[in-house]
Amino acid sequence: MEGLVMAGQLILALSILVSLHEFGHYITAKWFKMRVDKFYLFFDFLFPVPTVLNFALFKKKVGETEYGIGWFPLGGYVSIAGMIDETQDASKLATVPEPWEFRGKPAWQRLIVMLGGIIVNIILGILIFWGIRYHSGNNYVTLSEVNKQGIFAGKIAEEVGFKTGDKILKVNGNVPVRFDEVTKLIMEDDAKYTIERNGETKEITLPKGFLDKLADGKKGEFIQEGLPFDIKEVAENEGGGGAFKAGLKTGDKFVNVAGKPVKFYQELAPILMDNKGKTVSAIIDRKGALDTLKISVSSEGKIGIRPNSLLKDTHEDYTIGQAFNAGFVEAFAVVGTNLKGFKKIFKGEVSASNAVSGPVGIAKIFGGKWDWANFWFLTGLLSMSLAFMNALPIPALDGGHALFLIWEMITGKTPSIRVQEIAQQVGTVILLGLMVFAFGNDIFKIFK
């Protein structure tokens, strides 16, 4: 069931993004009175060969344009008369351009058409983040609040020198206000953390290749807010009801479980997993008095409690104008992160296998539970990432077409149809290679 929910969210998100991206090309082409022959969500052929397995799940012709949904569920396209792309045979463009054809229009108009999809994805991304910020405001934890108890250090953080309970004083010489700024700075070169541990100040510099290890996902989490907690609810039957049977009550705090000290909620789960099906001794704090309980752990590593985080959030409500500003900044921060990510890949600090995800990897990010807030956040993020990727100067992508048109506008010379055809073929091979790599990478990670 979780798999279906993941797939459903991915398909809906991609349908929205692809349809609106292609609408950007469609509406600008119509604006300049170009003839649009087809508008398709997904391909009605075996991509990238437009003459193989031609059929659609749905199609309807309205005026001069055929609208449809293809059977090949990757991407989509708008077929504009007189344009060399993956949907057309360049040999058909040897005749004199017609006034209603793409090639018969001025270069500046063709450039706007090629950038239309990117522009719409950017607008969509900004609108989504704007809506999220206006609806939900902004919840965050301040660094000063986290430093009251200290951080929780995951395994990969421990490898580079962090310890649970450390207090973050500075990152790259700056004092962040929000705790989420602390973890975002791992994208920076030579990120340096100034910490306090047991009253002493230390410095930790993230080593080369650290981001690649983190992206691999096998080493666990980096640093998180340490989550001090008490018991919010004790369930009689959940997880075998071990906590209920042992006499645990609302408001109790764990001090030690199975001989290990427990300060944060993140420390409790692995202890219980290590003691599945066993009875553990737990020291608890009940209104300042210590008591020892024997708690049965279920075969799933549960004892039937719900925690109440004692970490305080800061909430900000936004006006429409403030939400727009926040959404605008958040949307373009995605582009900045993509740029930094590409830089890390080219410098060899992050491997392509850890940086590239296919449909399976993206679906997992959506998760197995349908959460509209999470869905729209990820859709906004994907919209900005799609705009960034399409702007890359790779033949067959919008950025590649735009590069030819900018060259034409500067030099006054139009590249020959043969040159454009070869560039399109090279770009298509590159895209196919990336697709195969992304799918293969997904499969490899499943069985890894």
Automatic annotation (TrEMBL):
Subcellular location: Membrane
Transmembrane segments: 6-27, 39-58, 107-130, 375-397, 422-444
One GO BP: proteolysis
GO cellular component, one term: membrane
Cofactor(s) needed: Zn(2+)
Peptidase M50 domain residues: 10-433
Superkingdom in the source lineage: Bacteria
Keyword Phosphoprotein part of the UniProt annotation: no
InterPro entries noted in UniProt: PDZ_sf (IPR036034), Pept_M50_Zn (IPR004387), Peptidase_M50 (IPR008915)
CDD domains: S2P-M50_PDZ_RseP-like (cd06163)
GO molecular function per UniProt: metal ion binding; metalloendopeptidase activity
Enzyme class: hydrolase
Keywords on record: Hydrolase, Membrane, Metal-binding, Metalloprotease, Protease, Transmembrane, Transmembrane helix, Zinc
Membrane topology value: Multi-pass membrane protein
UniProt key word Metal-binding: yes
PANTHER family (alphabetical): MEMBRANE METALLOPROTEASE ARASP2, CHLOROPLASTIC-RELATED (PTHR42837:SF2), REGULATOR OF SIGMA-E PROTEASE RSEP (PTHR42837)
NCBIfam families with a match to the protein in the record: RIP metalloprotease RseP (TIGR00054)
Entry similarity comment: Belongs to the peptidase M50B family.
Protein name in UniProt: Zinc metalloprotease
Organism: Arcicella aurantiaca
